Amino acid sequence: LQYGDMKEIAPVPYSGTPLPDGVMGQPVDYAIMIAYFVAMLFIGTWFGRGQQTTKDFFFGGQRFSWWLISFSLIATTIGSYSFVKYSRVAYGYGIASSQTYLNDWFWVPLMLFGWLPILYFTRLVSIPEYFERRFGRRERRLSTFLLLIYLIGYVGINLFTMGKALNSLLGLDAYVAVVDGVQAFHWPIFGCAAFVAVISASYVTSGGQTSVIMTDLFQGVMLLATGFILLGLGVAYMGDLDTFWANIPRTHRTAFTNFNTDASYNSVGLFWQDGMANTAMFLFLNQGMAMRLLSARTIKDSRRALIATSVVLMPIAAMVVASGGWVAKALVNGGILPPDIAGDDAFFIAANFLSRPGIFGLVMAALTAALMSTVDTLITAVAAIYVNDIYKPAHPNATEADLLKAARFSSICVTTFGIALVPVFMGFDSIYSAHGAFTAAVTPPLVVALLLGVFWRRFSARAAAMTMIGGSLIILASIIWPEIITPFAHGVPMRDAGDSLFGGAKQYKFMRAFFGLSVCSVIGIVAGFTSKGRPLSEIQGLVWGTVSHAIKNFYGGRSGKELESVWTLAQCQQTEDASVDERLQLPLVRISSGLAKVIEAEAGDIIYICDSRWWLGGLRSSHAKISALDGSDTGQTIHLGPSIRERVIVSGRENQPLQVKRLY
Q1: How far apart are CA 213 and CA 292, in angstroms?
Q2: What is the pTM of this model?
Q3: Which of 96, 167, 463, 472 is the most buried (most CB within 10 A)?
């Protein structure tokens, strides 16, 4: 692809009239978008009913199957900024825009076999909790502060993107215009962002993680489908795939463009900022990602979800989010659209040009889905950190009702903070610049501290604190004096960024990630070798290679290995016993000796019980602990109390068998 022969069609001069400014789409398109908003509110609040504990609110009861988690993860990964940001890059640079979505494979093995088992079997409720258990309370406070900066900033970027998107659809400027005697208000970016933020926060504060997962299922399908619709419409308009491909310039068909010559976009910078720093942050430290993986019913389901997302859905997403830019470039080269299209508007203009009324509304609804599916995850992530790392330590006697109130209150607060950050990100040239500069500056200290903590047993509390504090201060210094990054810049030139407050942040906005990773790694390694770490006996289960201890300590697993039985069917017998295991907070159930023989279980084991309909994805399911075996019953029966029956059995299916398996 990089050097082979390519058929190219010479650019055709545009001879049409200038594109009209102002509102895009027809009334039916906006009716579809409004209907979509209403549908998401309904789905989110409906499935989010009955949230009684913080485990329900933050982790959806830890009951969902892998395919539901996968679609939810891809909906979270594809933010609203993705369509606008990557379509802009695809319009300006071509298929090189797909690099970002194909970089996860660097980190997936370490995630699957290193961090994920620790995360799952130690039953962490927040990322900062790991820092306290691995290092100490000081390190928990530091990581909480840095994580909140990252997550709240991400909320602001997403709201800025959606505000800009709606602003482009409804008018490029904020003003009151009179069209055919009708007064129409064209929304400003800030107002658009605030409007969508209120919608997202509404169902999140109601249903928490269950609402997020169920809305993201619909939104993930919507995102993938409409992205392919736009690409298909572009190919069909050009005649066939060969003609479409030939109308994309050769420079736009190279996988790695501008190694270091263009300060605005270069492959080496993209590798370090997005492939290394931001991807590691997203996989290992994003509280929203952790909560989603911990919502799976078993660690096997978590792994399957991550593999399906990285290997199957992410390459598809790479095409989906960039399709608007590729299509716009082909239409410009063919003389169908004018060459002066702004990159940030490429997605909207191409979609508006190609789509019939109604289809355009679906495409814009997908953009809305992209925003909401990312913002809702971020809101619940910040709420989880606030409740578990700030509110709960300060209120050790708080009840579940108090914690739920705090979670909902913090969801509203983070939405407000995100809206307040929108004007800050409006100071950057583009969404891509704002996102790159932000993640390159805030991610390296946390990424290095966590990875060294997980994979290096000698890494000490002092080394972790020095990495986070020292690394953050040096990165801040690089914003004030960006020239200190020059030796790390791989030849990427400095650009004229002006003297504004964010001038230094715009300099080396990608290469600051490599600078930060290098500095933090040096600090961490030197401090690790010059300080004494905790004895291995104190960090069993918290570092790579000791996960068997986490399984034994938490679940009471007999072997410390990830063992699961086969699925089998069991008939439910009702009991009024509502006993609960206080340590695990799981209902206690009694099973027949016949069922115990099939799933090779004994008293004290953990089992998973669910409705036999696979397509529910775990909505009707629960974990439980076996309290005793009924030796007189050689059949396959399970005795369930009232609370677990309410979770698992739908009215009218009381006589239907349930699926059961033993875990760990």
Answers
A1: 8
A2: 0.83
A3: 463
